[in-house]
User: Fold these one by one.
Assistant:
Number 1:
Amino acid sequence: MMEEAESDSEPSIDWDSMTFSFTETDRMYIAKCKQGEDWQPGVMQDFQDLQLSPAAGVINYGQGLFEGMKARRAEDGRILLFRPELNARRAQEGSRRLGMAVVPEEMFLDAVHQVIHENERWIPPTGRGELYIRPLIFGSGAILGVAPAPEYTFLVYAVPVGPYFKGGMNPISLKVSDEYHRAAPGGSGGVKAIGNYAPGMMPSKNAKAEGYAEIIYLDAVHHRYVEEVGAANFFCVKDNVIYTPELTGTILPGITRLSTIELARSLGYQVLETKVDIEFAMGADEAFCAGTAAVISPIGSIEHGGKIATYCDGEVGAITKQLYDALSAIQEGRAPDPFGWTPSA
Ligand code: PLP
Ligand code: COI
């Protein structure tokens, strides 16, 4: 009998115990571009370590950004993406902010498709996880002065993942960070700059050691308005009205955030993008966070300044559940997609 090639075989992975963690897959995409020139055609290659100058802009000055998106296997065999053109456009905005070469939307989407197809065996079975796609754009050229690098790399890899927060749809406990802020007006909080994430690691680790799932950041000027939950956007519900922090440039314009707003409005809810005072949020009826990795994750409690707000007695709120069910049904291809959000890969 012929031996099955590794690339065709099912990976030895327990789909049901996956978490949001790294697994090496088969293939990745890489393209390069000299400052001021067009991108060279990208190539697919085996997943491998990079060769990088010690003086590369990204490792010296953090000139880089990442994106995050998911591919899901629908029941009927289609592989569905979720609004990938918005990731492409957000990466373009971020590249401009960080002084990097801009990847054309078509090139971005083509790379994502190639990576999905060449790692197809890593896409979890329907309903048992997702293939998380991680595009990176960074200054790979050597530079000593603080200035844009002379060369850029666009890379895409993919990893099969399970739930971002332990326990999936179990409501999470969060803690407001009283000491640290994530972003300040005029900074890079509104783009997915890699440098936005390292400063959150220590506060987040400390909160996790205290039993919280993540940190909630407040605005850096008044230390009063909710910004974000670690790596997801914040929502709360009061008297059937849905509130989410307005985009001021310091929070990430999440694609799940936008989709949740559009979906909730289509279901007849009033959604206000506004300043969300932490005191107001603590008195809300329901709270949840939204992101590609987190999808819609219910918040069970928030600690702030020694006080603890609990929501729905630790159960998932009715509106949170309705939005989660509606969004995930579209994302997984279990419900019609009237918005045209889920192109096939
Ligand atoms: N906020 C931050 C800081 C993030 O890193 C993410 C993750 O991408 C989000 C919010 C949610 O954005 P999206 O829904 O586009 O994944
Ligand atoms: C995402 O939701 O895609 C994120 O980027 C979150 C995170 C893992 C940083």
Note: The chain has seven helices and 16 strands.
Number 2:
Amino acid sequence: MSTTLTPTQKKIDEAIYKVPDFPKPGILFYDITSIFTQPQAFALVMQEMGRLYQNQSIDGVIAIESRGFLLAAPFALERQIPLVLARKKGKLPRKTTACSYSLEYGEATLEIHIEDLTPGKRWLIVDDLIATGGTLEAVCKMVEAHKASVAGIFSIVGLPFLNYEQKIGRYSPQTLINYDSE
Ligand code: AMP
């Protein structure tokens, strides 16, 4: 837990359900889905996200399956910019581009419809939580490989003790609340 929380962070912290030993012993799971059952907390998160990027030029949002969808969709609608979904392998029907990254056990792959990833545009990449940063790094590299650029990274929660700055610090990750240890 962060030592000093702002009043806003305190409200966000209170809205996040923490589940010990999920999905396996020793992991504290930050279940941000509890935010969506509390409309005031959801509104607060969207307000804070909007504030972070209000003066920034962003051409579109890439949302990471699945909880990233829930944050990226209202943001893109409010800003009237395109929303592109990064989905788990095998879900998208049209021609895709893919990126793979390491999980604790094995590998995972995310795919984007290639025609949606417009070259030359500035994309905000959105997920619910940054742990090691491996997922977001893979998506950022895929964006760059298609001659587009990363305008930033947004997540509600950051776990900086897992050193994600080393992987994705250059993409200016923004979080609303950080936790020091699990
Ligand atoms: P990483 O690629 O290591 O940054 O992992 C980030 C992804 O894993 C996000 O999509 C999170 O939803 C999920 N994740 C990793 N650790 C946790 C955790 N302690 N609580 C909730 N979700 C997590």
Note: The two ends are 8 Å apart (CA to CA).
